[in-house]
Design goal:
This protein is α/β, with parallel strands linked by helices. The chain folds into 2 domains: 121 residues, Rossmann fold (3-Layer(aba) Sandwich), CATH 3.40.50; 95 residues, Arc Repressor Mutant, subunit A. It is 41% helix and 19% strand. The strands form 3 sheets. A 5-stranded parallel β-sheet has the order 2-1-3-4-5, with helices on both faces. Strand 4, helix 4 and strand 5 form a beta-alpha-beta unit. The longest helix is centred in the middle third of the chain and has 19 residues.
Length: 231
């Protein structure tokens, strides 16, 4: 049975174009033009992935994702005409798995869809060799999907978790932004360093006493980032 994608987009021509191309790519597509109908479908018949426009009439995409995340972690990609980084960062912080700015080429969207679905399946079925790792007072258990600092649980998004896992598994190793993208996000994100900058900032806010003067995830000028174990 083909995977189901829920497309939430109020622009009729764009909605029809995306639906046609996804159908040609082998997906089952359900379309709605507003967030209220989307939430009803998610609760009644959860899809495998949601393509969610931010600029919807009535309830916008950001508010819709807040509601969705109360009951489900269905992979979600934002479609946005707003190019300001604030919107993009807020969307990811709310729990979106990715975003893509309009106008976009369909092959790019298709690659993002496949990448997000692949990551989602990987999260559901972690590799048998994913053993717990520890560096100082930071502890990450990929199998249990838990992370702690000094024994206290950390509330991390999936990508924050993956980023911390990379650092804790390789303390004192310097990772370039390109290497982090390859290891955590995948090749589909090459050339998008902002996704790393944003997530490093969020991670610092959760594990550093003073995020403005980090001592755990430190910046190595001209080279990247590394984790310095503490405690």
């Amino acid at each position: 049975m083909p995977e189901t994608i829920l497309l939430v987009e109020d622009e009729q021509l764009l909605r029809r174009s995306i639906m046609f191309n996804l159908d040609q790519a082998g997906y089952r597509v359900v379309t709605v033009s507003n967030a209220e109908d989307a939430l009803e479908i998610v609760n009644r018949e959860p899809p495998d992935l949601v393509l969610l426009d931010i600029g919807l009439p009535g309830m916008d995409g950001l508010a819709a994702l807040r509601e969705m995340r109360k009951t489900t972690d269905i992979p979600t990609i934002f479609l946005t005409a707003r190019r300001r980084e604030l919107d993009e960062a807020l969307g990811l912080e709310l729990g979106a798995d990715d975003y893509i700015a309009k106008p976009f080429d369909f092959p790019v969207l298709l690659a993002r869809i496949k990448a997000v679905m692949r990551r989602s399946k990987s999260d559901d079925h972690p590799a048998a060799g994913s053993q717990p790792v520890q560096a100082g007072d930071l502890y990450v258990d990929p199998q249990a999907a838990t992370a702690t600092q000094g024994g206290e649980p950390l509330d991390l998004s999936p990508r924050e978790f993956d980023l911390l896992h990379l650092f804790v598994a390789n303390p004192d190793r310097v990772y370039s932004v390109d290497k982090i993208i390859n290891q955590v996000w995948g090749a589909e994100y090459e050339g998008q360093p902002q996704v790393v900058y944003v997530h490093v900032r969020w991670l610092r806010e959760k594990i550093e006493d003073r995020p403005d003067k980090p001592v755990r995830i430190v910046t190595i000028r001209g080279k990247g980032y590394k984790l310095v174990p503490q405690g």
